[in-house]
């Protein structure tokens, strides 16, 4: 019946054009009609008969012979249209994308959109509805094969997967049809996408209705989405079907025209009677018929207005006839010298550009296609128990969706997924050997929401449903540990300052003068800086603080160790130069001592400058705390080599001091300052040797705390071991008098030393310490 209406639409359009005084006023259009019988051979034979003028019967008073047909409207099927590729044809229903190939089909035009647009629309609809697990059924012809290929191409990279792909054989073997239905029923895919012509789908769907398969959501293409042929027998099995339909318009007078033909007329009476019997379910009585009728008898008075007609493909037929008429009009209106062209009517058909009587602008693109536009129709069971169509949505080009009349929440949609959605706190893991839509849900990693990492400086909540700000952690002055270290740092600096003040106050006493006051003052000042540099390690890291803390630490400790080394070397050389008249000490006077300290300090300064210029320490962040729920602010060293050189140089000076003091351990017992220096260096080296593994293994802010503790411990070791005995003598005068008497005694017993100029500057100090001991 659909084909019958298409034929009547062509006749209606031809008659409408012939009545139009503006379009082809001096020319009358005629037509020939032939049944393709759904076979390529019949289609080709009919087409050849038309274009060569060999058609046997021609109806019409003005036609005295069978004319040659310049253009063919058809065929409806893509496979048949491919056969007609060598003739000039305008198809109203052949949507195979392969027909857009201008190399293979240069003479083909159509008023129906290519299936390339329909494939995009189907994928868009599946994604919109959340159907990620679908089955596909296609026909075994050009329409089905090409449509499935386009669909598979569009599905690449989408969130929709295909469970199965079944092909309806042209033989329509019942066993194969039933096998397809078994595959459909056994699949978890509740949605079935079809790409097949109406006759193939009818065979499949009749068996679906027979087996009462009602739990599937069918997606129909324009090939059968609006065919009223299914309304009388599909029942609830196909209710809810969503179909892509061509644009429906209201053509003035056509609806009335389709209902006014009667089987008693002279025009195409056999065809009309056959359609009438199928439409109303009755039979006409034939005079030669012997057997009685098995059903009701047709009276010819049945009313066609009771039949629902969906004007989708009909409008394509309407546009095809008007395109041909306008092309002929353009060809007749050609100017001398500007046509007609070599390829005749084809040239004008390709370049036609006009507005149809319903107000639509029509033209063909470079591939012979028109612009795409689809209606989404929903099948529902009407009051009489028959399937009816209702418009739900529109897909205008380029397949953008207007969600005004349909949405997933507005319908009772089936769930068609291979695996259920993963709950919060889990992620998808694709099952081995299956499409990406089939997965297992495994717990997400900590710090992720829906297995997506939280933004910077955010962390997942306990139930992994929301990202919360991380706790920022650094060694702060408000922390208990920071307060303790700050107090120790200030106390050490204060103690160093107090000792320096005491030495300066008693600078004229024999004790201070004999202790090389210049080195002592410089040593105490550097120790004070060592204590204070620990404060630079506390607080939120900043670029300036990161550079200050390491350079101040490195330089102050080098100055301190250089002073200690100078004192040790002078003591050792003084007691080793035992020969009378030996003048070796002239190379270790105050000037040489200052130069040695300056040289040692300059080496560290150069290393620090290069470090700060090439790769300075900078603030950085690292995950810390339980499961990384905190962000720890630290100072990255920038250059590991620079940091290693600073520490290595300090270690080198400390080692040399320790070795020198160790060599002086066997000096006379009264001269034992070397032993105290050796002991202080032993503490210093032990602290920094233990610092390395503790620094590496400490987490978060405790890394900084370990470094600060090492600085304070080594500084306190130097301060207490070297200056505590001297302070004891200064603070207790009675002990000072005894030491002074002992010093006079030494002057009389050691003439070879007393005559040395170095005696009062470096030798008296160990003597005083020995007396206290």
From TrEMBL:
<keyword id="KW-1133">Transmembrane helix</keyword>
<feature type="transmembrane region" description="Helical">
    <location>
        <begin position="519"/>
        <end position="539"/>
    </location>
</feature>
<dbReference type="InterPro" id="IPR011500">
    <property type="entry name" value="GPCR_3_9-Cys_dom"/>
</dbReference>
<dbReference type="InterPro" id="IPR001828">
    <property type="entry name" value="ANF_lig-bd_rcpt"/>
</dbReference>
<feature type="transmembrane region" description="Helical">
    <location>
        <begin position="551"/>
        <end position="575"/>
    </location>
</feature>
<keyword id="KW-0472">Membrane</keyword>
<dbReference type="InterPro" id="IPR038550">
    <property type="entry name" value="GPCR_3_9-Cys_sf"/>
</dbReference>
<keyword id="KW-0732">Signal</keyword>
<dbReference type="InterPro" id="IPR004073">
    <property type="entry name" value="GPCR_3_vmron_rcpt_2"/>
</dbReference>
<keyword id="KW-1003">Cell membrane</keyword>
<dbReference type="Pfam" id="PF00003">
    <property type="entry name" value="7tm_3"/>
</dbReference>
<dbReference type="InterPro" id="IPR000337">
    <property type="entry name" value="GPCR_3"/>
</dbReference>
<dbReference type="InterPro" id="IPR000068">
    <property type="entry name" value="GPCR_3_Ca_sens_rcpt-rel"/>
</dbReference>
<dbReference type="InterPro" id="IPR028082">
    <property type="entry name" value="Peripla_BP_I"/>
</dbReference>
<keyword id="KW-0325">Glycoprotein</keyword>
<feature type="transmembrane region" description="Helical">
    <location>
        <begin position="631"/>
        <end position="664"/>
    </location>
</feature>
<keyword id="KW-0807">Transducer</keyword>
<dbReference type="InterPro" id="IPR017978">
    <property type="entry name" value="GPCR_3_C"/>
</dbReference>
<feature type="domain" description="G-protein coupled receptors family 3 profile">
    <location>
        <begin position="481"/>
        <end position="732"/>
    </location>
</feature>
<dbReference type="Pfam" id="PF07562">
    <property type="entry name" value="NCD3G"/>
</dbReference>
<keyword id="KW-0297">G-protein coupled receptor</keyword>
<dbReference type="GO" id="GO:0005886">
    <property type="term" value="C:plasma membrane"/>
</dbReference>
<feature type="transmembrane region" description="Helical">
    <location>
        <begin position="708"/>
        <end position="731"/>
    </location>
</feature>
<protein>
    <recommendedName>
        <fullName>G-protein coupled receptors family 3 profile domain-containing protein</fullName>
    </recommendedName>
</protein>
<dbReference type="Pfam" id="PF01094">
    <property type="entry name" value="ANF_receptor"/>
</dbReference>
<feature type="transmembrane region" description="Helical">
    <location>
        <begin position="481"/>
        <end position="504"/>
    </location>
</feature>
<dbReference type="InterPro" id="IPR017979">
    <property type="entry name" value="GPCR_3_CS"/>
</dbReference>
<keyword id="KW-0812">Transmembrane</keyword>
<dbReference type="GO" id="GO:0004930">
    <property type="term" value="F:G protein-coupled receptor activity"/>
</dbReference>
<keyword id="KW-0675">Receptor</keyword>
<feature type="transmembrane region" description="Helical">
    <location>
        <begin position="596"/>
        <end position="619"/>
    </location>
</feature>
<feature type="transmembrane region" description="Helical">
    <location>
        <begin position="676"/>
        <end position="696"/>
    </location>
</feature>
């Amino acid at each position: 019946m659909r084909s019958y209406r298409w034929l009547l639409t062509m006749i209606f359009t031809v008659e409408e054009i012939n009545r139009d005084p503006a379009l082809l006023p001096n020319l009358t259009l005629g037509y020939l009609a032939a049944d393709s019988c759904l076979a390529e051979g019949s289609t080709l034979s009919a087409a050849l008969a038309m274009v060569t003028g060999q058609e046997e019967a021609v109806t019409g008073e003005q036609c005295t012979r069978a004319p040659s047909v310049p253009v063919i409207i058809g065929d409806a099927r893509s496979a048949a249209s491919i056969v007609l590729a060598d003739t000039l044809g305008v198809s109203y229903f052949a949507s195979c994308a392969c027909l857009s190939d201008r190399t293979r089909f240069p003479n083909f035009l159509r008023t129906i959109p290519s299936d390339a647009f329909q494939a995009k629309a189907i994928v868009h609809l599946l994604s919109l509805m959340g159907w990620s697990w679908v089955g596909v059924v296609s026909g075994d012809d050009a329409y089905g094969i090409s449509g499935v290929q386009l669909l598979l191409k569009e599905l690449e990279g989408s969130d929709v997967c295909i469970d199965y792909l079944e092909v309806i054989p042209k033989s329509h073997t019942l066993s194969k049809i039933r096998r397809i239905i078994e595959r459909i029923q056994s699949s978890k895919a509740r949605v079935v996408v079809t790409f097949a012509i109406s006759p193939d789908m009818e065979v499949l769907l009749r068996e679906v209705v027979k087996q009462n398969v009602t739990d599937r959501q069918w997606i129909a293409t324009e090939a059968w989405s609006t065919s009223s042929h299914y309304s009388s027998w599909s029942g609830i099995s196909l209710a809810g079907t969503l179909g892509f339909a061509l644009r429906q318009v209201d053509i003035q007078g056509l609806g009335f025209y389709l209902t006014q033909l009667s089987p008693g007329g002279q025009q195409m009476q056999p065809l009309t009677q056959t359609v009438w019997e199928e439409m109303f379910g009755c039979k006409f009585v034939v005079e030669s018929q012997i057997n009685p009728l098995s059903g009701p008898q047709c009276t010819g008075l049945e009313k066609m207005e009771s039949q629902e007609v969906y004007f989708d493909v009909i409008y394509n037929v309407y546009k095809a006839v008007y395109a041909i008429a306008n092309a002929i009009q353009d060809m007749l209106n050609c100017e001398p010298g500007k046509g007609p062209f070599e390829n005749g009517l084809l040239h004008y058909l390709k370049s036609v550009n006009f507005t149809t009587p319903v107000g639509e602008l029509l033209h063909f693109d470079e591939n012979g296609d028109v612009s795409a536009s689809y209606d989404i129709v929903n099948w529902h069971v009407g009051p009489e128990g028959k399937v009816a169509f209702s418009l739900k949505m529109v897909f205008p080009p380029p397949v953008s969706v207007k969600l005004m009349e349909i949405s997933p929440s507005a319908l009772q949609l089936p769930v068609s997924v291979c695996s259920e959605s993963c709950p919060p706190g889990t992620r998808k893991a694709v099952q081995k050997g299956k499409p990406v839509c089939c997965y297992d849900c495994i717990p997400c990693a900590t710090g992720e929401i829906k297995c997506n990492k939280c933004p910077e400086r955010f962390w997942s909540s306990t139930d992994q449903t929301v990202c919360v700000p991380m706790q920022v952690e650094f060694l702060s002055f408000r922390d208990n540990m920071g307060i303790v270290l700050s107090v120790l740092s200030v106390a050490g600096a204060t103690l160093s300052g107090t000792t320096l003040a005491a030495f300066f106050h008693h600078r004229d006493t024999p004790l201070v003068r004999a202790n090389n006051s210049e080195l002592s003052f410089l040593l105490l000042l550097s120790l004070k800086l060592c204590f204070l540099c620990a404060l630079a390690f506390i607080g939120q890291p900043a670029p300036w603080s990161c550079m200050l803390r390491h350079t101040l630490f490195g330089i102050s400790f080098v100055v301190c160790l250089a002073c200690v080394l100078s004192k040790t070397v002078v003591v050792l050389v003084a007691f080793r130069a035992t020969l009378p008249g030996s003048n070796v000490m002239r190379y270790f006077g105050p000037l040489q001592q200052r130069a040695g300290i300056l040289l040692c300090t300059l080496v560290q300064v150069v290393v620090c400058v290069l470090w700060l210029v090439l790769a300075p320490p900078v603030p950085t962040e690292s995950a810390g705390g339980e499961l990384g729920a905190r962000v720890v602010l630290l100072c990255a060293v920038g250059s590991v080599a620079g940091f290693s050189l600073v520490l290595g140089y300090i270690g080198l000076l400390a080692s040399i001091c320790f070795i020198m003091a160790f060599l002086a351990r066997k000096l006379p017992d009264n001269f034992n300052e070397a032993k105290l220096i050796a002991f202080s260096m032993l503490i210093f080296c032990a602290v920094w040797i233990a610092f390395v593994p503790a620094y590496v293994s400490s987490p978060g802010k405790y890394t900084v705390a370990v470094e600060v503790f090492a600085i304070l411990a080594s500084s306190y070791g130097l301060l207490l071991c070297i200056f505590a005995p001297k302070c004891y003598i200064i603070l207790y005068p009675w002990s000072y008098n005894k030491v002074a008497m002992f010093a006079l005694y030494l002057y009389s017993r050691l003439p070879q030393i007393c005559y040395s100029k170095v005696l009062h500057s470096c030798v008296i100090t160990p003597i005083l310490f020995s007396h206290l001991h």
